[in-house]
Design goal:
By secondary structure, the chain is mainly α. Helices cover 82% and strands 0% of the residues. The protein is rod-shaped, with a radius of gyration of 22 Å.
């Protein structure tokens, strides 16, 4: 068995998976920030007594 090739295959797959997870985290963080900005922009001003 070519352990060097097996290690390289595994390492590349792991780093690809980490990149996919990081990209998903960034995308969902942007979604959250945009939702909060929309919510703040559409919020009613406080009513005076």
């Amino acid at each position: 068995m070519d352990y060097r090739a097996a290690y390289k295959t595994l390492f590349n797959a792991l780093t690809d998976a980490v990149t996919v997870l990081q990209d998903a985290q960034i995308a969902t963080e942007k979604m959250y920030i945009e939702a909060e900005e929309d919510r703040a922009a559409n919020a009613e001003p406080p009513r005076g007594n």
